[in-house]
Amino acid sequence: MSLATASLFIIILIAISAVVSSSELGLASARKIKLQILAKDGDIRALEVLTMQEHPGSFITVVQVALNAVAILAGVIGEAALSPYLFELIGHEAIASVISFILVTSAFVLFADLMPKRLAMSHSEAVALRMVRPMLFLIFIFKPLIWVFDGAADSLFKLMGISTVRKDELTSEDIYAVMDAGAEAGVLKHHEHHLIENIFEMQERTVTSVMTTREQIVYFDSSASNEHVVDTMIDAPHHKFLVCLEDDLEQIIGYVESRQYLALILKQQQVSLTAQSLLRPALFIPDTLSLFEMLETFKSTGSDFAVIVNEYAMVVGVITLKDVMSIVMGELVTVEEQAIVQRTDNSWLVDGMTPIEDVIRALGIINLPNSENYETISGFMMYMLRKIPKKTDIIEHAGFHFEILDTERLKINQLLVTKLQDEQK
User: Fold this and answer.
1) 56 in Cβ contact with 166 (< 8 Å)
2) Whole-model pTM?
3) Which value, to the nearest 10 degrees, does the dihedral of the CA atoms of residues 370, 373, 375, 379 take?
């Protein structure tokens, strides 16, 4: 065989190997989500790629048979064609054989493997769509070989107890990673990324993390005078107020809406907190519900206000639809008072009842110990101190200095959090 003919055969074999190599990587690495979108848009080839990914055995067998056959044939042709010419130049048969092997192998590595695979990795979906039907044709042609090799491989895997079924289960961590990548690439804006992250967080946070706590609940005794009710509604401008028997928060009989109550007062009508036209039944929910479950409860009941009770049937707080949605909207919701106020680049004033998730996000704190045992920054301090906190108590953890600035009875009102690692630089 002449050198020109051998070179032509090697170029053809390199081209075949390049196509097969790019097909292998493109079909294997094509993103399932992207293919599903293309399939919904009517691209039949995307469905064929998805089917091939679910059952990759035949495809892998064809690729390996083709690549190995081409590589062996190229080695034989290259050795037979190049060695005589190199022997004439060098005068040493062994060295000529080694050089011809290196030249052919280098050409295959560069043009038949490295470059095609890098191209396929950069354009995996496009390559997969273009090559899926040629690969299906090759699978049909090499059906007998596939049956032998694929069957043998399946039998060996079964003997070893290894599953070869591809699982494409999408987890919340996968979605977080995609969102982070989208934010870094500029596809997602900052507030869009923040909103999506908040929605996933609703499944993990319980209602107690955003509730109005028991000591902050404003409520009325069922026998309260109109003057007392009106003055209280003016001083504490909430939309809804609980009504209790014997001024006992454990004996809630319902709630009244301030707008409706005050409208009747302005019309100089006789008003009673227990009137059927005013008193509405309260929705009671356990303190173990997640915010996502709370949102579903509000949706199914048509309510936007609920009373939270613990396992001992004690009222621990109240929650509104606005409280739940404030977690979703985050910084996009205007709040009257910020729970976390940044003083300097390295220090923050934090309200004691701030949910621990908000503290983690605002300060960038990681590795808080056993975070399932507390829901607020006050709970974190109690857990770490192993006692009832008092003013000036401090702890240091995860590169931050936590100091209690103000307490009221057994409650932490405010803390100062300082980032130590920046101070030490």
Assistant:
1) yes
2) 0.57
3) -100
